Amino acid sequence: MLHVQKTTSPKTVVTMDIGAFNAKETVLFCPHDRKTFLSDQLRNLVPIGGTFGFDVIEFCGTFVPGVP
Hints:
alpha+beta
């Protein structure tokens, strides 16, 4: 049975598809295996500790000034 290890404070996260939203993650902990479980959905959108989504990071990384 999983237990709640911690719940993070709400943090504003920005993606191009969803826009800005408040993300609050609940980290679960298995006392038997001593393993923690993070949100896969949040990890697929934003790097750990990040504010901007992978889609925003990629868009900014491929931006070339003066090219439409």
